[in-house]
Each structure stands twice: as C-alpha cells, then as structure tokens.
Amino acid sequence: QVQLVESGGGLVQPGGSLRLSCVASGFSFRNFGLMWYRQAPGEEREWVATISVAEDRTNYADSVRGRFSISRDNAHNTVYLQMNRLKPEDTAVYYCNAGPLVTTGGAFVRELWGQGTQVTVSS
User: Fold this and answer.
1) CA-to-CA distance for 100 and 98, rounded, in angstroms?
2) What is the mean pLDDT of each run of 10 residues along the chain (123 residues)?
3) Residue 11: C-alpha distances to residues 34, 99, 121 (Å)
4) 52: Cβ–Cβ under 8 A, 6 or more apart, which residues?
C-alpha cells in the first residue's frame, strides 16, 4: 500500500520544540524528494520545507528558516521535521508530501499526502 503516515504532533509552549516524523511505504523512498506542508485553520495549505533525493539540498519557507530543519533516513523510509523556537503562528496541521512518483507496483501517482499531524503552540 502506498502511503505516508505522519506522527509527532502535539501541544507545546511558545519557544519549545517538536520533531515530526513521516514514514513512507509503497514506493522507492530513496529515489524521491520530500516536502512538508502545513495548514492553519481558515488558511490555505502552505509549503514549509523540501529535501532532495541526495539530502544535499534543503529549502525552507521564509517563515521557518533558521528554526526548522528537514532531514531524511533512507534506511527507515522516514522524513523528519525538527521544529525549534516554536511560535503560536506555527499552529497548524502538518502534512508530508511526495510526488510525482511511481509505486513499487508500477502505478503513477501525481501527488501523495499523509493524513496530517496537529501541532498547537500555546501557553
């Protein structure tokens, strides 16, 4: 089954940290770039960070650069988002994204999303 499953969200105080995880299955993880997005209540989904296939290139939205760090563990089909110095405006559902890709069964998938994990930053 091709899927992305996020975890690690929760309630944290301003200035705190969280690490999100996204475990992939059903496609050759190491061959594709990966991204994190987020969606706050009443807002459109926005891109947060990207990591390349070779891990040598990462890119971040201006709003999180210097506070968030994206990384990947190809041996465990997992991509991470380390979030430090969290602010109330970081409150959102965070989604893992991949694609376009080809599954291990040979199917083309234009875009693959996880179910999301809630991050709430509040005192």
Assistant:
1) 7
2) 96 98 92 95 96 87 98 94 98 95 88 96 97
3) 25, 30, 6
4) 33, 58
* Closest to 93 in 3D by CA, of 30, 42, 27: 42
Among left, alpha and beta (phi > 0; psi -120 to 50; other), residue 44 is beta
Place of tokens 């990591």: 51
Return phi, psi of residue 10, to 5°: 165, -170
**Burial classification of residue 54, based on how many CB atoms lie within 10 Å of its CB (0-12 exposed, 13-18 middle, 19 or more buried):** exposed
pLDDT reported for residue 8: 98
CB-based contact 6:95 (threshold 8 Å): yes
| Residues across the chain | 123
